[in-house]
Structures are given as C-alpha cells and as structure tokens.
C-alpha cells in the first residue's frame, strides 16, 4: 500500500471515530409517549423521497437551476468518495470505472464552481455566508478537480488521495458533516412526524402508495 493510501486510510478511520464520538455525545432520542396517529415508516419514506422534490421546498422550486446544480454537485461528491475508497485497493489503469467517475465529476465540478461564484457575486447569499462556506466549497471543488484529473491520468491518484484525506479529516469538524448527518436527521424527523401523522400529507401518501 502506498504512502498516500495509508494517509487516506488513517483519515477515514479518524473521521469515522469523530462521527461516532459526536453521535454518542448526542445520546438516544427521547421516547414518544403520545399515541401514534400515523406511521413512522411512512414518514421516513416521505423524508427520503417526496420531501427531496423541488415542489416540496419553496426555496428549491423558486431556484430550480441551483437545485439541479446542487444535485449534480452532491452526486459528484459521493462518486468521489466512493472512488477514494476503491483506490485503497490499488491504482488501476484507465478503465470503465475511471470513465464513469470522470463523467460524474466533470459536471459536478462545473456546478460546484458555479455555486461558489454565485455565492460570491450574489449580495444576498454573500450576506448569509460565513468564511467556512467559501472554504468548504473551495475544498470540495479541489477534491473533485483532483479526482477528475486522476480519473483521466492515473498517475495523479496520490494527489487525489491526499486531497480526499484532507476533506475526510475535516468532515466531522465543519459543515461537511451534513453529508452524514443529513441521513440520520432525516430518518429521525421522518419517523417523528410520520408517527404524529403530520407527514406525509394525504397528497404525498397517494404518491408513496401508503
């Protein structure tokens, strides 16, 4: 195993330990004593399907291009993370996997840069932003760029691994943590509001078939 692969592996282990420590510090959710008026499972299903649709969010429906760019951006991030994990098993020659990675990372990188430019030039977004927003966007863009280059030129894989290790180590410390806690928080909220019968609505239940 190469030096950069070892660095990446240590970064993954360190980040995982950080996430586990944060989850343990939060403790268990308080029990619900009120009688159930709906289905927790239906609420969770809603949270991970219909609730992601642009018409379920006013901000998304009003800014559809940014919403679609965000989807492409996040899809590229997950593709890059998956490629980083696979890189621990050795640097393969240019292959179908690398071509698929490049196809996911290229549009994601363009969207990420576009979103960063929008944050910089839009006075309203700039007023709502903190320095970390610009740092994280730039760091993720750098990882995607390194991943794209490594997909086209396997010799650049060590740079991709080091950039990815930096992002992974930083993940529990800043806003990047939402890439994991998005799933746990949506599951918890979906189960809560589903049990209370608040979500999904009657219309959404028809879409979900529940």
Unreliable residue stretches: none
Series of H and E elements: HHHHHHHHHH
User: CATH topology, anyone?
Assistant: Fumarate Reductase Cytochrome B subunit
Instruction: Assign the structural class, choosing from mainly alpha, mainly beta, alpha/beta, alpha+beta, or little secondary structure.
Output: mainly alpha
Instruction: Evaluate the radius of gyration.
Output: 20 Å
At CATH's second level, what is the architecture?
Up-down Bundle
What is the class in the CATH system? Mainly Alpha
**General shape:** globular
| Helical percentage | over 70%
**Major sheet details:** none
Q: Could you report the average pLDDT, rounded to the nearest whole number? A: 87
End-to-end gap: 49 Å
Written description of the protein model:
- This protein has one domain: Up-down Bundle (Fumarate Reductase Cytochrome B subunit), CATH 1.20.950.
- The chain has helices spanning 3-26, 40-47, 58-62, 64-87, 96-121, 123-128, 131-152, 157-170, 178-196, 202-208.
- The protein starts with a helix and ends with a helix.
- By secondary structure, the chain is an all-alpha fold.
Task: Provide a concise account of the structure shown.
The protein has one domain: Up-down Bundle (Fumarate Reductase Cytochrome B subunit), CATH 1.20.950. The chain has 10 helices and no strands.
